[in-house]
Amino acid sequence: MDQNILFRNNVSIKGKGIQSIIFAPGFGCDQTVWKSVAEAFEKDYQTILLDYVGSGRSDIHAYDSKRYSSLAGYAQDVLDVCTALELKDTVFVGHSVGSMIGMLASLSHPEYFSRLVMIGPSPCYLNDPPHYYGGFEKEEILGLIDMMEKNYIGWANVFAQAVTNNPELPEVKRQLEERFCSTDPIIAREFAEAAFFADNRSDLKKVTVPALILQCSNDIIAPLAVGEYIHHQLPNSILKIMDATGHCPHMSHPEETIRLITQYLNEKSVFVESSPAGRGVHL
């Protein structure tokens, strides 16, 4: 076991099960966002939580701008953790860009993963008319990044509000804002550029690991059209439209998130076999 890797990514291991579940956060967040969800799986699984280098309590001295200029660098971190822990057939649960990071990792080493659970994923945030609607124009993303450079605290407030997209959840907004503000602004901006300008649409059809897509209602970061696009492009995938609103159901609606993941893991063979096209079913 490579302790350097585990220290670098602040890896936390709990649970009693034989099979492992990796929980990977989205942009600007650390492993603490998974607290309520991960604890629900500790009885039956070995839960593994990590921080991306530059976030949370990771080893910030390991951050390298060149390595993390693309999502491939973050995917390699996931693979490093899998190698260090000698994992195999692991369930990977990723939120937002974390979903794409896990997908890229599975393309390199599919043997490490048995299932992908993608919460609010997006392979491309930019609109590419007339066939793809990612939710944002390039000018909007550039404006967000410009705001990060000029007024990081103000950006954190605006972005946390957009991600939550629910005035009735002020505590979730506050928690997100605190996590954004705890990240080095330069690292956050470089991660934002890697995430929001990535285009992994062509990678979807290459995935061999079965996947569950959890699509939130009223999610302005990853709209419904994006979830449907991924479902149609991703082999052996299942799309579930959640009652949860916003972009962070693992924080705002942990009970529904836990229920749907558990249902998928317990009944995955039924779901897969029920689709004549081998793409899963719309639940």
In CATH, the architecture of one domain is: 3-Layer(aba) Sandwich
CATH superfamily of one domain: Alpha/Beta hydrolase fold, catalytic domain
Residues in β-strands, percent: 5-15%
Tell me the CATH topology of one domain: Rossmann fold
What percentage of residues falls in helices of 4 or more residues?
A: 40-55%
Indicate the radius of gyration in whole angstroms. Answer: 17 Å
Largest sheet: 7 strands, mixed
Model regions low in confidence, pLDDT < 50 over at least 5 residues? 270-283
How confident is the prediction overall: mean pLDDT? 92
Cα distance spanning the termini: 40 Å
Could you spell the SSE succession in H and E letters?
Answer: HEEHEHEHEHHHHEHEHH
Which structural class is indicated by helix and strand composition?
Answer: alpha/beta
Number of strands: 7
Number of helices: 11
Give the neighbour order of strands across the main sheet.
1-3-2-4-5-6-7
Q: What is the C-level CATH assignment of one domain?
A: Alpha Beta
Silhouette: globular
